[in-house]
Amino acid sequence: MSSPVTALPAAKRFVLANATLPQICVDGVEAPACEGLISADIVVADGKVEAILKPGTAPSGLPSTDLRNGMVWPTFVDMHTHLDKGHIWDRRPNPSGDFIGALEAVKTDREARWSAADVRARMEFSLKTAYAHGTSLIRTHLDSLAPQHRISFEVFSEVRETWAGKIDLQAAALFPFDQITDEAFFKDLVEVIVANKGLLGGVTYLMPGLDQKLDILFRTASENGLDIDLHVDETQDKETLTLKTIAEAKIRNGFEGSVTVGHCCSLARQDEEVAKRTIHLVAEAGLSVVSLPMCNMYLQDRHAGRTPRQRGVTLFHELTAAGVATAVSSDNTRDPFYAYGDLDPVEVFREAVRIIHLDHPLDTAARVVTRTPADILKRPDHGRITVGGRADLVLFSARRWSEFLSRPQADRIVMRNGMGIDRSLPDYRDLDPLLGV
Predict the structure, then answer these.
(1) Residue 291, strand partner residues
(2) Average pLDDT, whole number, for the chain?
(3) Contact residues for 398 (Cβ-Cβ < 8 A; gap 6+)
(4) Which of 48, 192, 309, 352 is the most buried (most CB within 10 A)?
(5) What's the CA gap between 156 and 53, in Å, rounded?
(6) Torsions phi, psi of 429, nearest 5?
(7) Confidence band (pLDDT; 50, 70, 90) for 96?
(8) Backbone φ, ψ for residue 45 (5° rounding)
(9) How high is the pLDDT of residue 7?
């Protein structure tokens, strides 16, 4: 099937006729749905969505492009990435392909190579890629061991300003959680986070005094008006379940800010009753959960000469059924934690459907890379199509789910402010100066 459109109308007001939209991504429109998909004409005017109408009812006389029932999505939200690590694989691979190998490789590369210029160049490459794929909102975690926290957050703030209006950016500080009791380090880190309008993060795991450390985290976040985004239970070890402890700590501290937990893989290894009690606590605490299926399948249950048994995902369906806000995201890109990836939410969505079984039905599946992560990140202006909202849209030739999920959708068209963008992806050769090639 060819692309639905070769060129958008050269007009300030025009119609995208015969579009197919994921209903979960559309606000304020009632229409008959089939597998969660609805048909509509979209009127675009002055860079905004003027109207979403029944097919064939758009005002006559307007320039129009017939999408022939091709899908139209809002731009994407990638809510858990690592822009500071991206694209170091070629200079620092992870031959073992496991978590410990990734930690060691990144540590070596960070200490040797992560100057401001190096971090900026790799961030820029990643953002050019994400923008071309149709992403408009990204949250990244930044390695924040001293002195890297000051280098990376300063670069991030500059990049965030440069990319304003194209991709909105958020950043969470990532550090080993046992260091939260190092008063000098943590005080300095919080100052950097506040100055750069970031979030508190960290890698939580079983350790002595975890409750006390979590109390410090929540108290500090409250005092400074910070939200929290944590790496949690990124393991297949059944004995590790800090997720429950985090939920209890949020409730105990009466914390009113947003708390996101990523990974939560060991939850899927728990006995049924333990899992149910934990999920109940997560829902009661109001935590949001993001799964990173591609990266965790790559890293986890990897043993030489042995076929993996585990998928590396959390109890996504059970959490969702309990009322927990759930999403999926890219995580790492071409670095020791994940050798592949291109910051393309279509790929993330397609693989998540397969890995987590988000299908049968697919009625609301599109939310996991659009409106739900946008809501979690407190940016409801992203991830949905709404009358009066910006015409930030992604157009596909695919008309139905089977077509959408069976191909990479490389012929998609990305619209920002009602106009098509140049979708040329940056050339990997642009990174050669960073690799010594």
Answers:
(1) 328
(2) 96
(3) 1, 70, 71, 404, 407, 409
(4) 352
(5) 41
(6) -65, -20
(7) very high
(8) -145, 125
(9) 76
Rounded to 5°, the CA angle 35-40-41 comes to 160
Please identify which of the residues 30, 223, 234, 248 carries the catalytic annotation.
Answer: 234
Provide, rounded to the nearest whole percent, the portion of the chain with pLDDT above 90: 97
**Residue 147 structure tokens:** 């002195």
Query: Tokens in use for 113?
Result: 């190579």
Specify the residue for token string 């790559």: 298
Percent of the chain whose pLDDT exceeds 70: 98
For tokens 């993330």, name the residue: 348
Residue 1 has pLDDT above 50, yes or no: no
Based on the residue annotation, tell me whether 234 is a catalytic residue of this protein. Answer: yes
Q: Which of 257, 171, 261, 247 is nearest to 222 (CA)?
A: 257
pLDDT tens column, 379-407: 999 999 999 999 999 999 999 999 999 99
Tokens of 35: 């597998």
Q: What token pair was written down for 382?
A: 């992203």
Q: What is the pLDDT of residue 5?
A: 58
